[in-house]
Structure prediction request, 303 residues.
Amino acid sequence: MNLSVKLPGLNLKNPVIPASGCFGFGKEFSELYDLSILGGIAIKSATLEPRFGNPTPRVAETPGGMLNAIGLQNPGVDYIIENELPRLEKYDTEIIANVAGASEEEYLKVIQKLNGNRVVKAYELNISCPNVKHGGIGLGTDKFLAENITKMAKKVSEKPVYVKLSPNVTNIVEIAKAVEYGGADGIVLINTLLGMRLNLKTGKPIIANVTGGLSGPAIKPIAIRMIYQVAQEVNIPIIGVGGISSSEDVLEFLYAGASAVEIGAYNFVDPFVCPKIIGELPEVLKKYGMNSVKDAVGRSFRK
Prediction:
């Protein structure tokens, strides 16, 4: 069974990638299993300076998922280059750097700092984080801004650029086509949906930031719908993400048009979810009459 996936700048041995923000820099997970089993790793967002994130509480459980408003907490790109990336070099897996910022200039500076690093194989441009006041989702919900930041990133980047899109838009195809036009090498779809919970005793928001990003199984049907729509309108690959917890979920995302997948919130439920899915995938593909991951991609609309 051929699980391999070839994407711009990425030779994945299988289509499974832990999502940025749900895997840190892999340290804790490396104590549980060999990270070399993974197709790739999308590491925690890098900003120019260290970020301490939003005030607490930042997390709230919801039926079928969770809300988070971490706020891109990270040690800063210099620390990541000096301390985190060297530790990841020993693993036989593709490292994707998630790049974030409060301004277009910050995104570009982070990319320029990472350009010379041989561990990082591609960038994931995070223009869809709903939990920061500047940059983030603002760039990802306007097609002109999305196209512009993609163009600027491609101009300075020495590696392929994948753009992570927000589902908090009326027309996802319009945004996807804009980043494709801007030169994106691929799309990551979807980030979290904006949500909120209230404390029944106080009547106030549970999360200090008021709103948070909804992730988990609750968002899976939305992710599949958006991937299905976008895959038929763009000519660049899609990495699908949103509510995946099983090998059957992965197959559904592939059918919808994703070439690979990222697994996010379920890493908190079951830290072994990624190796489990990788182990089960050959059997699931075989069960539904396929000999490779490629056979499954876009099956829902292929003639």
